[in-house]
Amino acid sequence: MHLHELLAERRDEVMRRWRANASGTLAPDSMPSVELLDHLPQFLEEIIATLQRDECDLPAESGPISTAADHGEQRLRLGFSLDSVVREYGVMRDAIIATARDGGITMTFHQLQIVHDCVITGIADAVSQYSRQRDAELARHANEHFAFIAHELRNPLASAMTAFALMKEKGQIPSEGRAPAALERGLRRTSDLIDQTLMAARVASGIELRREITTLSALVADVELGSTSEADAKGIELRSSVPTDASVEVDVRLVRSAMGNLVRNAVKYSHAGATVEIRASVTGQHAIVEIEDGCGGLAPGMVERAFTPFVRFDASEGGFGLGLAIAKQAADAHGGSIRIQNLPGRGCIFALELPLQAPA
Questions:
Q1: Long-range contacts of 307-315 (CB under 8 A, 24+ apart)
Q2: Nearest Cα residue to 3 out of 99, 133, 73
Q3: CA–CA separation, 290 vs 293, rounded Å?
C-alpha cells in the first residue's frame, strides 16, 4: 500500500492524533473541535495529494498550500499566539509519521522530505497571513485611538476659538500685537491638525467610500477657491485648466481634501510671485489632476519620502507634514495613484490619477 493510500484511509486517525496533542497545549481544552480543526483536514488532503502525485508519477502542481493562509488568519481571530500556529504544523507532521508507522509503513527519506516541505510551506503561508492581519489590526486600533483623541479635542477647541473670536470682537483682546496673533495662529493650526488627523484615520481605517458623481471642473473650482486667499497673501498666481467637463465617481470629500492638500502644499512652498497651475484631463478611463508649483525643485531624497507622514520639505515652514500622506491615502482608497515629477531649479508636478468610475 502506498503512503498516500494509507493516510487517505486513516485520515480520521491522523486528525484524532493531532487533536489529542494540540488540545490543551496549543489551544484551550474548551475550544470547540470545529474551530480547533479549522482548515487542517483540507491541509492534510493537500499533503496526501502531493504524496499521490509523487508516488504515482502524476504531473506536479506548483503554488503555495492553499488553506494555510486562511488558517493563519483564523488563528489570529481565535487568539492563538504565533508560536502556537507554527508548532501545530509540527504536530500535524508528527501525527502523519505516527499513523504511517502504526500502519506498517516506514517512511522513506524522500517521503519525509515531501511531508516536511509541505509543512514548511504551510507554516510560511500561515505565518505570513497571520502577521499581515495582525499588523492591519494594530494599525486599525492605532487609527481608532488617534481618531478618538482628535474627536474629543474638537469640542473644547471649537469653544476656545469661539470665545477668542467673541473677545476680540468686543475689544476684550487687542486686535493687534504679537500675543493675540500667536494665540490665533496656534488655535488655527491645532484645528487643522485635528481635521487632518481625523481625515487620515478615516482613510487608513478602510472605511467604505461614499462615492457620488461630480465633475472635474467642479472639483478644481472648489479647490482653487479654497486656496485663493493663501495664494494672494504670498503674491502667487493660481491658474487652472480643465479642457474637459468629464464626470467622475468618487468620494467627493476625500478627493477634494487630497487635491486641496496638494494645492495648499504647492502654494506654501512656491516662491513669492510664482505661479501654481492646476491642470485636469482624462486619459482612457482615468482622470488626471496635475498641480505644478514654483518651489525650485526638491532636494535629493525628498521624492522618495514625500508621502511619509510628518515629513516636511522645509522645516522652517509651518504645518505637520500630513497633507501629502492624506492625499496618497485618498488616491490608494480609490484604486488610483499619486506621483511626483521633480523639476530641478523650477518646481514640482504632483499628479493625482483616479478611475473615472468605481470598480464593477
A1: 307/338, 309/200, 313/269, 314/269
A2: 99
A3: 10
Q: Coil, helix or strand for 26?
A: coil
Spatial separation of the C-alpha atoms in residues 50 and 34, rounded to whole Å? 25
Task: Enter the pTM of the model.
Answer: 0.48
Residue 337 bridge partners (DSSP) = 353
The beta strands (E) that lie in the chain are given as: 211-215, 237-241, 247-251, 275-283, 286-292, 337-343, 347-355
Cross-strand pairs, 259? none
**Model pLDDT for residues 197-215, shown as the tens digit of each residue:** 766 666 665 556 788 999 9
Domain 211-355 -> CATH class: alpha beta
209 and 333 Cβ atoms separated by less than 8 Å: yes
In which region does residue 340 sit, left (phi positive, over 0), alpha (psi from -120 to 50) or beta (all else)?
beta
Q: Which amino acid is at 88?
A: E
User: For 340, how many CA atoms within 13 A lie in the half-sphere containing its CB?
Assistant: 23
Domain ranges of the chain: 1-207, 211-355
Round to whole Å and give the CA distance between 320 and 315: 10
Query: Where does 298-346 show beta strands of DSSP type E?
Result: 337-343
Positions of the chain with pLDDT lower than 70, given as ranges = 23-39, 59-66, 68-69, 71, 73, 76-79, 139-148, 151-152, 155, 198-208, 303-305, 307-323, 360
Give the Å distances, CA to CA, from 140 to 133, 137, 257: 10, 5, 21
23 φψ region: left (φ > 0), alpha (ψ -120 to 50), beta (else): beta
User: Which of 111, 295, 178, 68 lies closest to 303 in space, CA to CA?
Assistant: 295
225: cell is 477657491
Inter-residue contact 160 to 103 (CB < 8 Å): no
DSSP 43-95: HHHHHHHHHHHHHTTPPP--S--TTHHHHHHHHHHHT--HHHHHHHHHHHHHH
**What distance in Å separates the CA atoms of residue 286 and residue 353, rounded to the nearest whole number?**
6
C-alpha cell at 339: 506621483
Strands 237-241 and 275-283: parallel
